[in-house]
Amino acid sequence: MANSPTGESVLERVDRILAAFTAEDTRLTGGQIAALAGLPTATAHRLAQDMARQGWLERVEGGHYVVGTRLWELANRSSRELSLARTARPFMGDIHAVLRQHVQLGIVEGREVLLVERLSHPNAVAVRAAVAGRLPLHLSATGLVLLAHAPAPVQESYLAGPLSAVTEASPTDPQVLAADLERIRATGHAVQTGYLEPDTTGIAVPVRGRGEQVVAGLGVVTRAGDPAARAGAIVQALHTAAHGIRRTLREDAR
Amino acid sequence: MANSPTGESVLERVDRILAAFTAEDTRLTGGQIAALAGLPTATAHRLAQDMARQGWLERVEGGHYVVGTRLWELANRSSRELSLARTARPFMGDIHAVLRQHVQLGIVEGREVLLVERLSHPNAVAVRAAVAGRLPLHLSATGLVLLAHAPAPVQESYLAGPLSAVTEASPTDPQVLAADLERIRATGHAVQTGYLEPDTTGIAVPVRGRGEQVVAGLGVVTRAGDPAARAGAIVQALHTAAHGIRRTLREDAR
């Protein structure tokens, strides 16, 4: 792989260019790409042109680039994430129809939960991340349930790292978080109120795959004090859906 | 961009490696990647390792690679395809609930229709392409409706190119196909029976965006001779859903 003068590979630089595009910034000029990717302007322009030739970026009006359809196709047609999301979607729809709140499915990516599917309800509370968005594991119920079932070294390393806070309720003490994870394993579900947004409660359960391993977290985001959350009704709905997803994953594996 | 001895860029070779992975072949060894991508084995191995370092591929059991979560995230988080699919999905669900057949949404990519969303019904007829799969424009109703509304030079170039056939009914005569496109524009919908699979009928309508331009094709795949298709009920359901998608795209643009 050809390296730049800084020893960075072409792939690393292309990755940084793609990472400059987000749900909020879907259209960028060459200059914006250079700034966001931390690359010299000439390098960013040349790479963006190469990527456009390949269909990984596309030129649109006003000299802007967008992420190209070709990349979407390459990333999705054999994707485990799309496959998991599609398996889960009908069961998420069942929860959504009954509870009328946001339902989301996430997997672990490093120290974060990556949301692979979400069903939103127009009247539900506002929430942060969209599909393909990320949240710190310890700040969302979906992330907490994944962290609680991660291999022990992953949990230890997570607890040893910096624990960011976005509200006053965000847990930043490793001992408090460790006790939280223990409780999640004991009860089989995670609940957090206000860790990410004030007045918002997240509730999540693990989704197991063909074996016993946890392959995803399935969560609902609702208003703090929602009577359905207090009564355990949301947890039961989530467990039922998680069971259905697992059954379908096992049937598909045959 | 550094070039190989054949003058091919790193991006071109990485694109070919990613293209080796499909819905059927989701796990490949380095040797299989080399064969499918038409690359020297050593080159394929080295590039696959570089891609794995970047998270674009991932190593799984048995020395296989799969397309990585990182690439899925980069391709989806600012994606117009995901955004269009998510806007269309509730309306596709309405059709699906009423008609109980496959419903699909496609966009033009070169000489093919790329399926960006599909809802399938377990009892519906078997069909070929999955999400992120492709079909030749002239062999599927969704593709035909897109071709009929493509700019004139695109249509002319398509008609001048080779028209592949997969069944005896597949149209291979440019004049017959041109008349088909004319009829699609006049009636506002496309119908094909047996072009792609015997005993299967596809019906599709255009989805317009914020302006008058056609941004997608919305189609249903059903059994040949389905009474709902004959009575025009499917076309009306598709037009209603296409209208809903357009309305939502316009509202979102405000």
UniProtKB/TrEMBL annotation, chains A, B:
Q: Which Pfam families match?
A: HTH_IclR (PF09339), IclR_C (PF01614)
Key words of the record: DNA-binding, Transcription, Transcription regulation
Q: Which GO terms describe its molecular function?
A: DNA binding; DNA-binding transcription factor activity
Key word Secreted present in the record? no
**Domain called IclR-ED: residue spans:** 70-254
Listed InterPro entries: GAF-like_dom_sf (IPR029016), HTH_MetabolicPath_Reg (IPR050707), Tscrpt_reg_IclR_C (IPR014757), Tscrpt_reg_IclR_N (IPR005471), WH-like_DNA-bd_sf (IPR036388), WH_DNA-bd_sf (IPR036390)
For this protein, the record's PROSITE patterns field holds: HTH_ICLR (PS51077), ICLR_ED (PS51078)
Note the PANTHER family from the entry.
HELIX-TURN-HELIX TRANSCRIPTIONAL REGULATOR, ICLR FAMILY, HTH-TYPE TRANSCRIPTIONAL REPRESSOR ALLR
Write the protein's name.
Answer: IclR family transcriptional regulator
- Which BP terms in the Gene Ontology apply to this protein? negative regulation of DNA-templated transcription
Q: What's the source species for this entry?
A: Kocuria dechangensis
Boundaries of every HTH iclR-type domain copy: 8-69
